[in-house]
Request: fold
Amino acid sequence: MLAHQRQQKILDQVTAEGAVKVADLGAALSVSDMTIRRDVNELVARGLVERVHGGVTLPRSASVFEPGFSAKSELDRDAKAAIARAAARFVRPGTSIGISGGTTTHALAQELLDVPDITVVTNSLPVAEVFHTGGRSDQTVLLTGGQRTPSYALVGPLTVSALQSIHLDMLFLGTHGVDIESGLTCPNLMEAQTNQALVASSRRVIVLADHTKWGVRALANTIPLSRVDVFVTDAGLDPGVHEALSETVDDVVIAGEHTPDTNEERALDDRA
Reply:
């Protein structure tokens, strides 16, 4: 198979699935990793795909492009897990929390399964499923209605209406993209409106976003960075970006940097 034929097959698969692992491409095309990487480099140079850790995706600069939940779950998994662990330490027994749609917030839900007596309001089908299958009997989980997006978030007027009558101690908010000027953005207008309703219902807003989200500007504005109380990201964030972000957001948490163990921290609080 000629190089341009392989590259077309790679592009077709990435377009169909949103994101693909390099190792899977090599196996599917029966060529070496080195050959696949050369093909990927060529597609990157032409602006047709974007390289991410372990794989390739369609360019995140496409303002209305939104990969499916399964595709996004495969991207930057270690960073998302670290962010989830760091964010989980903010949750205490007896609190009411909102969890938006997204793969990083989905990872957070798995970190909260042992926290007693929490009330979770979510518009994410995967988040609700995590608590349904593995949560505690003293946890209350409320799932909004609405129209499903490719990331399995429920959005739209029904969702917004349900959120207008609740009050949350804190919200854990995922995002498609973020920059200083636009703040948080997403490719779906109804999801932006739904996230705005979640923010309006919450006393404290905690954003979960790995470093690859920085500089990505999608179609719709969600909230400005000035509305964010805590921004949790990973160590891959550029130091210059970190500095600029810290000028707008009071608390920027870099996952893995002096982040106490969640269970140990809660135990200390219980003894206090």
In short: The two ends are 67 Å apart (CA to CA). Confidence is low (pLDDT under 50) at residues 262-272. Residues 3-17 form the longest helix (15 residues).
